Amino acid sequence: MRYFEQRYDFEKMGKGADRLKSYAELKGMRQEAFLILHRILLQGEMPRGEAERVTGLKGSGDG
Fold it and tell me: Rounded to two decimals, what is the model's pTM?
């Protein structure tokens, strides 16, 4: 755990999530969009198929 504490500033990440949520709300984004953006903030990326699982929404099947 100490490695992660040294590598990542979790306090700044938390503040970043708050700012991201405020931005998403300001732009009129749905809660599901924030969930995707938050996941990307924490992990740096997210596989396309993972968005459906994170948001709980079903894909349109057009892909």
Answer: 0.61
